[in-house]
Amino acid sequence: MSEKLSKVLKAAGLDLLSCMQCGACTGSCPSGRHTGLNTRRILRDARKNRASVLSDDALWLCTTCYTCQERCPRDIPITDALLELRRLAVKEGFMLPEHRRISEMVEECGHAVPLDEETKQKREELGLDPIPETVQKYPEALQEVRSLLKACKFDELTAEK
Ligand code: SF4
Ligand code: SF4
User: Fold this and answer.
1) Which of 88, 125, 139, 148 is deepest in the core (most CB within 10 A)?
2) Ligand 2 within 6 A of CB of 26
3) How many beta carbons lie within 10 A of that of residue 109, not counting itself?
4) Ligand 1 mean position to 7 CA, how many Å?
């Protein structure tokens, strides 16, 4: 990316410069206890404008529980910064294959998890309409969803680059 990461984050109201690298965020991260997510390191790399932070798969391991943000002694909006970094990562074409697949499903069916035959059958057994009142029941509504996605260039954003 041409612009410096720290500047982009600052412009979004997410200033990381007061981070003192104390590690309280990493130490309190429930996801980091089980994965390679190291919040302190991600913030340091973003602050140092290391573009590699955007291609780091660990960026996607945050569950957005906001524990780190609540505990940061410098009141840094850590989780919000991680979300902004994800947004920038997608813009640069970095996305986990699973997320790309889910995006394709939203474009195809209007749902990240479309209804399958088994669920339809279970609904019927419960006396429900097999297809609920969603875009899956109304093709014209699905077309509207697709038009909206196209209008906001969702398809371009999530396409493999
Ligand atoms: S808790 Fe706050 S000050 Fe400490 S390393 Fe994390 S972001 Fe920086
Ligand atoms: S918001 Fe994300 S990075 Fe922060 S503690 Fe929760 S899982 Fe960890």
Assistant:
1) 88
2) no
3) 16
4) 18
Considering 91, 124, 141, which residue would you say is the last residue of a domain?
A: 91
| Alpha-helix runs per DSSP H in 14-160 | 24-27, 39-47, 67-71, 78-91, 97-109, 117-125, 139-151, 154-158
The closest-lying atom of ligand 1 relative to the alpha carbon of residue 20 is 3
User: Buried b vs exposed e over 38-47: b needs ≥16 C-beta within 10 Å?
Assistant: bbbbbbebbb
Q: Say yes or no: 101 and 145 in one domain.
A: yes
pLDDT at 111: 93
Residues 9 and 85 in one domain: yes
Q: In which region does residue 59 sit, left (phi positive, over 0), alpha (psi from -120 to 50) or beta (all else)?
A: alpha
Model confidence over 88-144: pLDDT tens digits? 999 899 999 999 999 999 999 999 999 999 999 999 999 999 999 999 999 999 999
